[in-house]
Amino acid sequence: MTIILFIAGLTLLIIGAEALVRGSSRLAAGLGISPLIIGLTVVALGTSSPELAVGVKAALSGRADIVMGNVVGSNILNILLVIGLSALIAPLAVSQKLVRFDVPLMIGVSVIVLLLSLDGTISRAEGAALAAALALYVCFMIWQSRRESDEVREEYKSKYGAAGRGKTGWMLNAVAVIAGLGILVLGSHWLVESAVYFARCLGVSELVIGLTVVAVGTSLPEVVTSIVAAVRGERDIAVGNVVGSNLFNLLGVLGAAGMSAPSGIEVSGAVIGFDIPVMIAVAFACLPIFFSGGEISRWEGGLLLGYYAAYTIYLFLAASRHDALPGFSAVMLYFAIPITLLTVVVIALRELRVRRGSRL
What we know:
By secondary structure, the protein is mainly α. Helix content is 84%, strand content 2%.
């Protein structure tokens, strides 16, 4: 019964997010809002709505580990799994704006979340500050969108430019938004309750379930959106969606959850000491990968996928205190990670030389 409840909750989250994105984007288009702005704000919020619904529900229920696991796990998954899968389908283009502004901002916000967590709690005031920062970020994106190229504008227009026609269209889209929100609330309730039960049955912490099962479930809209964009050749959307979603998770989901929890969100020592630093390291890893050649190649996508598999295996080995944990950790720490760092540095240096040569 719990498995059925989990699958049903997950299905409702996907359906609710899709209804919310479609209804809100068409209403925005009907109001004459630019498709580019719709993609950067309405759709980004919509694809993060499962994390938001689950985060607020878990915060109200006192399930702080699920809140933190959901946000941190989703951000790690978005980069390693979503971008990895998308790059395997087709090499992904990376705009200079992402490298120069959005990724450094994602890194900066991740570090700020770590600093806020050091006292063991993200308070209501800190949650409000994160939510206010999200509002400022959205306003900046709207202002920045005026500088986007015609090619990017057309890409977003073809994807998000459909508007409802007549009163019937307006009503249907409004109903889709309301229904989507209601479905998200119900789906988040079922998902959180079943995830807690899974943790008890498997003998692992709610944090591990949040970092893995819940994070995968709530990130499915990002997975689908980015993979479909990669298949269609919308390579800017595929990468931008992930970075934007990560920022919305850190600022919006943690902000709303922090304000919803009566005493703020408790942050465990495991999250502070390991999972958030991993999230920051993954965000830092984007810079050289994104920088090399202005695209994410298939082999880089495979590398990201490999690291996500390794991270997930480590979580379950550590949770079960398996005998293979010391050997696995040693291989990753002294072999896999150094070789990867060396390869990325060599590629970045080669790209710098190419760019300097082209300038001369």
